Structure formats: C-alpha cells, structure tokens
Amino acid sequence: MSVSTRRRYAAVALATVAALATTAACGDDSEGGSSSSAKPDKLVVDTFGEAGYEDLVKQYEQQTGIKVELRKVAQLNEFRPRVVRSLATGKGAADVIMLEEGILNEFKLNPNNWVDLAPLVGDLSKDYLSWKYELGKAPDGRLMGLPTDVGSLGICYRTDLFKAANLPTARDEVSALWPTWEKFIETGQKYKQASGKAFVDSATMAVNGVMFQQKGADLFYDKENNNIADKSPAVKSAWDQAIALADAGITAKITTWSPEWNAGFKQGTFAATACPSWMLGIVETNSGPENSGKWDLAAVPGGAGNWGGSWLGVPTQSKHQAEAAKLAAFLTNTAGQVAAFKKSGPLPTNLKALEDPSFTSFTNKYFSDAPTGKIFGESVKEIVPTHLGPKHQAIKENAMEPALRAYETGQTTKEKAWEQFTKDAATQGAF
Amino acid sequence: MSLSATTAPPSRGAPSKHAQPRRRRGYSRFTRLDMKYSPYLYVAPFFVLFGIFGLYPMLWTLWMSLHDWDLVGTHTFIGLDNYSTLLGDEYFWNAVRNTFGMFILATVPQLALALFLANLLNRPLLRARTFFRMAIFVPNVVSVAAVAIVFGMLFQRDFGVINWFLGIFGVDAIDWRQERWTSWVAISTMVDWRWTGYNTLILLAGMQAIPRDLYEAAAMDGAGPWRQFWTVTLPMLRPTFVFVVILSTIGGLQLFVEPLIFANGNVIGGAQREFQTVQMYMFENSIHNLSKAGYGAAVAWALFLMIVVVSMLNFVITRRSVK
Q: Which of A121, A147, A271, A401 is the most exposed place for a label (fewest CB within 10 A)?
C-alpha cells in the first residue's frame, strides 16, 4: 500500500512539474564548488525503492545534530526526472542522491554536475567490491558516487501456492527444480496445470534476470558506448528467453509496477518472480503483513547475475558538499550497509559488511526465515558486471519491455515486436 | 480632469492666496495621473505574472526548439530542423491522433451530459436546487491525481470493479491498458467525471441569462418543456456553449496526468503507445531523453499551435452563430 501510494504521488508530482520543467529548464550552471564550512542545519537525501535508511538517518541525526530529510520515491522512472530537473535548473537537488546503475551511466556524460567525493571522504577504494567502486568513477576520474548495493539475483516464490500445486516447498528442493531457464519454464507449466493459474508475473520480469546474467557482456552498448541493441548477442538471447516464457503461457501478463502487479503479490496472481536482493523489500511491502512467512527465496536459474544496484552521489549544487559527502560515506560504511540490508534487503558492496557476522547469519523472517545473508552473500563473489551504456535504462524501459509486453499480450507478432524494439532502441539511445 | 478641480470642496479656514491654487493644481495633476494610469496599475498584476510565468517560458521554449539542446549539457543552434523532423515523426502523429481521439471521446458525451444536467438544474420547480448545483461541482474539486488513481484501480484487469461488474454479464476481463479503444474509454471516463459538473455550471449560468418571457411566450404558444429546450434554450445558449467547447479544447488537448498515471508513470503510454498524448511525448523527449530537449520544446510549440488553431476555429464558429 505505502509503496503504491507513494509511487503514485510521485507520478503526480512529476506530472505537475512537467510543463514547467521543459520551459523553465534554463538553469545557470555558474554554481561553483562552494562547500561552506559552517555546519548545515539539514541535509536532504533522495532515494528510490526501499533503501532502508530510516533507522540509519535517525542515528546520524543523534550523532551529529544535523537533521536529515529523507525523500523517497518508489519507482526509478519517476525518480530520475526529478533528479534531471534539478540538475537542469540548477535548483532543488538533494544533498545526497541515490544513483542507480542505469542512470549513473547517463550522468557520466556530464560529470561536472557531481562532486568528486574522493578528496572529501578519503581513499575508500579498499572498502568496496573493486569493480563496483570503479564503476562509480566518471571518465574524467572523479568519484561520482559511493557504492551502496548490488542486485544479486534470486527467485522469490510462494510456498503456500507451490504446496497447493504439489510442488516441493523447501528452498533447496525448489532451487533444484530449475538449474536452467528451460527447467524453470517446465516447472511453471506443471504449476499451471495443477493450479490453473499463472506461474510468474511477466516475461519482462524474467528477461531482466537473464540479461544481467550475461557475465561481462555488452548489452545495449559496446565498450565504446555505441548503440548495438539490435545486434547484441546478449540482448538477443535474453529476448529469445522472454519469448519462450511468453509462448509457454505461464506468465500473468502483468506490467511491472502497475496496480495489477501490486495487488498480484497479495492475491497470489502469480507464484514466483525474479528477485534481485533489493526486490525483497518491495515484495514484502506489496504482499503485506498477512502474507508473512508465505514467501521464500530460491536460487535463480542459470547462475549468478547482477540486476541493479546504486551509488550515493553529491550534486555540485549542494550547499553543504563536505557534510553531504560524509553523510554518503556514513550511509555506505560497514554498519550502514548491514543495517540497510536488514531493514529492506539492498545487498552490501562494502567488503567488511559482506563478512560481518550479523550480515552472514541474517535470516529474513518475512521470507520464511530464509538465510538471505548467506544466499546473497555467496553469490556476490560470482558477480561479473555487465556493461551498461548511457541510455541503458531508457532502452530497457521504453523500448525492450513494451515490445515484449505487446507480444506477450498478443497485440503483435514476434517479428513486429522485434522491429518495434530495435526502432525504439535506436531513438531512445540517440545522444 | 477639470471635473475634479471644479467639484473639489472649498477649503475651510483662511488659506494663503498663493497656497490654494498651487495645492489645487497639484491635486488635479495627481488626479489626472490617477485617472490615466491607475487602470493600468490595476490590471498590471495579471500581466506581470503572465509575463513571468506565461510569456517568458513560452519564448524560452521557442528559443530552445531551435536548438539541439542537451538538458544537462551543450546547446547548438540548428534552426527549424526540429520542426521538420517532427513533421515526419510517426510517434508524434500517433500522439496527435491519441490526443484528438481522447479529446473527442471525452468531450462529446461530456458536453451532451452537461447540457442535459444543466437543463434539469434550471427547472424552477426542482427542490433543493442549490444543493444539487453545488454537489455537481464536487468532482472538480478533487485533485486530478486522486481521480486518476481511483479510476486506475477501477479499471484494473484482475481485480477492478468495472471488470467485476462486466463479469456479472458474462463479459471476459478486459485488459484496459492494452488496447487503444479500451484505454481511451478509461481515460475519457476520468476526464468526464471530473469536468462534466464544471461545464454544467457554466451552461446553467448561460441558461439563467435567457429572458424568462421567451419561455412564457413559448408556453403560451403551447410549447412543452422539450420543445422549449430545442427552440428557445439551445439557440440562446449557443455563445455559452461555444465558450465551453473552447475551454474543453484547451484542457483536452493538454491531457497529461490521467494517461500518465494510467500508464503507471511510463511516458510512452501503453506497450505500443496506445494512449500516449502529445504532452507525454513532449515529456518523453525533453525530460526522459535529456539530449533531445530541443526536440521536446518543438513538440511543445506544435501543441501550442494546434490549440491556437482549434480554438480559432471555434471562435470563428461562435462569431458566425452570434450574428
């Protein structure tokens, strides 16, 4: 409930500023790197999804006496325009902004909007997964963001629905059902035969998982950031997998983040969904307390992958850059990442946090006491990040997913869907 | 001007010979200035605000539309290139078609219903008229977003009330967001719910301005209420009606919040852009695709021009009908 309302209010906020934003986008970029030495009264932090910072922020307030305003938006595609608007107009940006991997790459094209954190927080390169830390750097070498989480993959499933369909319910047995995506589809068909209901929410949901399992591959962009969406083998194989899922008829054909999707968690419209670790908090919020203990977490078919994950950056327009950088460091330090994980599930990138006993021994009560710390903690080490280009997020959300959805719901043919995707990918990706 | 000087009350006491004319002359000069410029001062607040929040952004958008404009980067002047691209842009025309489609689908039944309701509320014999007149305006007070959210729930595929209701009659669940027509119907319903009462009140005001004796004369000639509506109310109401049409045009062509929320915040509006409006397309280009802000500005100006043209058409029709 809270997620959906918040998200919609976000949509509204976004909507109301739309006209102004396009016309008033005349910001003066004369903002210098002025970091005032006086202690600020208040710092503002912008996050999306479930970052799990509520308790941490209270701690910070007690320790420093600086108030923190936490502004949350549930969904990335409504969060991003806000950030863009404040960058473009030079006003209204938070002091600390959460940058998802998809949009970080886009902002790397104009790194001047972001403070170089390295001089402000010292050398923290040894503290994080090295690839993750490196990805936080802009081409000009500045550290645009401190790593928060990665999106190690799993499959969330409903034990009660599995049981009703005569499928095993123990997480190890469930993981054993689907070493590959083909087996996953077979399991889905068995579920559908027994229950008459859809197995997963949508084909697009699964394709995200498949895409981010293409270890180290180029997705929509090659390493020189040329748009190769129409000829990338990694994209094609993910596409084919999604088509196979749709053809198997085991999807509920639900648009992710729609009201149907939110309600589906509670109502059991589907029994499984792809779960990067940050999704755990969203599954919990959407399913509500009445479904506590009905969800569990199994391995993802096809091996480890990384979907999503963020950094905390400080925009140059912040009036308290030094303090903001310290706050970002506080939120991403060992204790901060463990606490955020326990609260909402974003998976640590801080090496000590990944070793921390209170992380490794953590079990998630909502997910039938699944040892999420152990499961995700082990998969982190296998992650080889895929390469994401500047407009990755836009291509995924506005070209690939809609085209797949059009096919899944029977509005178009395979060939036409692919045509739609490649055409839109080319225009969304133009920059 | 001289009027105030002559009607100024004679001052009491014994003013010096020099002071009095001078003061009177000063007074009259002030009055003259007052008469001449005060009206401008009175209307100034609107025009100042309009200049800052209306004209300036408009001109700025025009300037932007002549550039290859990266919202957070560089700007290059390219003249009218954005506009020529726009003319051949399939998605732009798709958005135009959606916008006009939903505009017609929403406006026609809305105005018919508003006319009907206004006529009911205009009946002298109706009890608790004030209550009904106020009640009919309530939907307009509710925020657009709230309307969109609630209707978004009603039009859900799996658990929506509308599908449940249709299910009673054996209709299969409709996926309202997937087809062009169903999504248009859903969005038009939202628009109608919100604006019908508003238009009803304007039409009602227009009806009240029609002289009563026309109806009395009509009644004496034996015209029933229905005949009176067609031969007296409707012709006399024409200017008001066209005004309402113009208002609806401006609002309808700027449709944005309802379809955006209906699309769960995705600017492309449906898997195949079934209900992406021009405003959403503008948003997609300028905010969503940072580097194409200039193109987005061109879309904004194209929309502005479309509204001007359609409103002018309506205006021409009004003048003719009034004559």
A: A121
Q: Sign of the CA dihedral B284, B286, B290, B291?
A: positive
CB contact under 8 A, B145 and A9: yes
Beta bridge partners of A154: A275
Closest by Cβ to B261, choosing from A8, A113, A412? A8
Say if the Cβ atoms of B60 and A23 lie within 8 Å: yes
Q: Could you tell me which chain A residue has the CA closest to the CA of B154? A: A259
Backbone angles phi, psi at B249, to 5 degrees: -65, -50
Q: What is the spatial distance between Cα A202 and Cα A250, in angstroms, rounded to a whole number? A: 8
Residue of chain B whose Cα is closest to the Cα of A424: B91
CATH at B96: 1.10.3720.10
Please name the residue of chain A whose CA is at the shortest distance from the CA of residue B55: A23
**Which DSSP string do the residues of B98-163 spell out, in sequence order?**
HHHHHHHHHHHHHHHHHHHHHHHHT-TT-TTHHHHHHHTTHHHHS-HHHHHHHHHHHT-TTT-HHH
Chain A residues with CB-CB distance to B187 below 8 A: none
CATH pick for A152-307+385-428 out of 3.40.190.10, 3.50.50.60, 3.30.230.20, 3.90.550.10: 3.40.190.10
DSSP labels for A155-186? EEEEHHHHHHTT---SHHHHHHH-SSHHHHHH
Query: pLDDT 10s digit of each residue in chain A, 431 long?
Result: 344 444 444 444 444 444 333 333 333 333 344 444 568 889 999 999 888 899 999 999 999 999 999 999 888 878 888 898 898 888 899 999 999 988 898 888 889 999 999 999 999 999 999 999 999 999 899 999 999 999 899 999 999 999 999 999 999 999 999 999 999 999 999 999 999 999 999 999 878 888 888 888 889 999 888 899 999 999 999 999 999 999 999 999 998 888 889 999 999 999 999 999 889 989 999 999 999 999 999 999 988 888 888 999 999 999 999 999 999 999 999 999 999 999 888 899 999 999 999 999 999 999 999 999 988 888 888 888 888 888 888 899 889 999 999 999 999 999 999 999 999 998 875 44
